[in-house]
Specification:
With 141 residues, this protein is mainly alpha-helical. Helix content is 80%, strand content 0%. The protein is built from five helices and no strands. The relative contact order is 0.08.
């Protein structure tokens, strides 16, 4: 994940969940990337016509080597290009929703901060609220 994407992730994920979300992101990326080598092999052999040599390596023709190299190149390009295109599509969608998500995360953080201040005994709002209740009680008593 790039530093810009990580920065944006930090802006929309609540502070208490950041480690879990980052670990989940790393886990998904690691698991999905583990499928890359077999995918390249399957694509090269079954889609792009890689021919494994049946004789010793000395007897393999230059033409077969070039064809196999081209098959591997196409398989690598496909195995890299398709996921990159998918990521571009997903990130484009996420950038469209990002401003709303960022504002929602900021509002939630502000609400949580205000709730913590209200619950705190040393909070000025709590003291003012207590003074109002005392003065109202004294005035009616």
């Amino acid at each position: 994940m790039s530093s810009a994407a990580l920065h944006k992730l930090l802006e929309i994920v609540p502070e208490k969940s950041r480690a879990s979300v980052y670990a989940l992101d790393r886990s998904f990326e690691s698991v999905l990337s583990s499928f890359a080598p077999p995918t390249v092999g399957i694509l090269a052999q079954h889609v792009y016509g890689y021919k494994s040599p049946k004789k010793s390596l000395d007897n393999v023709s230059v033409t077969t080597d070039r064809e196999n190299a081209a098959s591997l190149a196409k398989a690598l390009y496909t195995a890299i290009g398709v996921p990159m295109a998918l990521c571009c599509f997903i990130y484009t969608f996420l950038y469209c929703t990002y401003p709303r998500d960022r504002d929602r995360a900021r509002m939630t953080a502000l609400i949580e901060l205000e709730m913590q201040e209200i619950e705190s005994d040393d909070s000025p709002l709590r003291e003012e609220h207590s003074r109002l209740n005392v003065s109202e009680t004294i005035g009616f008593g």
